[in-house]
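**Entry details**
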Amino acid sequence: MPEPLRLAFLGCGFITGVHSRHLRRLGTEVVRSYASRDRSRAEAYCRRYGGASAFGGYLDAIADPAIDAVVIAVPPRFHRDLAERALEAGKHVLVEKPGFPSMEDYRAVVEARDRAMRVVLVGENDHYKPLAACLRGMLAAGAIGDMVMAYFTTIAKRLKTADDWRNDEAMAGGDAFFEEGIHWLHLANSLGPKIVAIHGYRPAAPRTGPDSRAKSMMVSFRYDNGAVGSLFYSREVPSLWRGLRLSKLFGRDGVITFESNGLIAASRGKGLPRIVLPGFKDIRGYRAMYRDFIHAIRTGAAPAMSLERAIEDQRLMDQVYATIGP
């Protein structure tokens, strides 16, 4: 029986709770600890999620020889510094998405990773969720023939409070599309065909309200197989059940329609219509992501969401913002 991975969360906010709830399903494979600038908060998370240790600072957790790896779950502004410090201390790193605010940051962490000979996984859980695997399999099997067009939509009204750190672009790395829309941009670029040209269109941001970020983006793109696509993202437009939306992949032999969050997919083509339930047990992909992280640490293999794969997303994101204009 292999030794469990001794993991410390750097940051005790909402997303650490999400990770922790999914990690419970992995049983004894992962031993969790928690670090916060407020030790009482770390202790509260330790009690709530069955942690082994609590730390009153991020560097204390990084310095502890009992910790094998860290999860960086703080605002993106601090990701690079903590990643470099953790790697220098010989820790493996899982960094929440978006990994880093700039390409320069990515390159610096690649160099630090290679010097330390440790694993760095960028926490793009959408890459691992059953819907993504299902869509990749259907396209590879020729379910709709040659893809012609793709349409992705993720619309919901989910406003942040005035004191939320995401309202500070220096802290978040960018606006709402950068901070969260990157998950959907990754999905669009991870199904087989690769995006080779992309353009962003951002509507005017609202002038009132506590959530001052730009919260909507439309992106158009072209794939390397000649297909074209679009992505509609918003966190200020009301939607059915706070986010239920349908997306489509159009091919010369049929169409795949799927619920954007992963509830269901359906294809119609040359044969009988087919309905697929991608899977509900790990619908957001967190458990599969951690299993990949553990496998990479134990075997030395590169994780599916390596820094190099995340750099592809960052390159597209940079192009989106280079084209939106003032």
Observations:
- The longest strand covers residues 147-155.
- The chain is about 35% helix and 25% strand.
- The chain has a mean pLDDT of 95.
